[in-house]
Amino acid sequence: MLEIPLGKDAAIQLRAARRICVIGSSGAGKSTYSQRLSSSLNLTYVSLDRDVRWLPGWQERSREEQRERLSALVADEAWVIDGSGSSSFDIRLPRTDLIVWLRLSRWKCLLDVAKRVARYKGTVRPDMAEGCPEPLPDREFLSYIWNFERRFSPRIIQEIERHGPSVPVITLKSYGEMAQLLDLAGIRD
After folding, report:
1. Fewer CB within 10 Å, N or C, the chain?
2. Out of the domains of life, which is the source (predicted)?
3. Nearest to 49 by CA among 26, 20, 18
């Protein structure tokens, strides 16, 4: 994996990228950060949850339809895609200029999911498909967040090495680092 440490080189990579994947655990802030990047860098925002995976009523599209939709979306020349599903890295990474990996602590992710639920419970948040109101998290979802680093990060690393070994990866471990990257890249509100 081609890791770029947070600093001037990371900022240069971010400013130059036209196709960015933002990955990380649920609750890490992928959607918010992706939307900020897309508007600041004038790139199309794509949410895997909203644009690829879900239909109204929390009905999941078939795997082949998800892959078809995603293939069409990544064919575009400029985008920011948020979502960590490594099963679609074979489609995304060959077209990706930069991966931004949000690796916040599980406690921070759980707290942010709680804040999200408090804000959107029963309504559809902007990065989710129509007809998919924010639910109370169940045990399986909370376990996914709690075990993300141990159970899912090794697979993500493996899939990056398999499908995008030359794609630079910037790892950010806090909101402070997320803001610092934007600052270094000259991205302001």
Report:
1. C
2. Bacteria
3. 26
- What residues contact residue 4 under an 8 Å CB cut-off, 6+ apart? 10, 13, 168, 169, 170
3-class DSSP state for residue 107? helix
Q: How many domains does the chain have?
A: 1
Cα(10)–Cα(3) distance, integer angstroms? 9
Q: What is the pLDDT of residues 61-76, one digit of tens each?
A: 999 999 999 999 999 9
CATH number, domain of 162, equals 3.40.50.300
Q: Residue 88 has what DSSP assignment?
A: G
Residue 189 has pLDDT above 70, yes or no: no
Q: Tell me the average pLDDT across 111-140.
A: 94
2 falls in which pLDDT band (50, 70, 90)?
Answer: very high
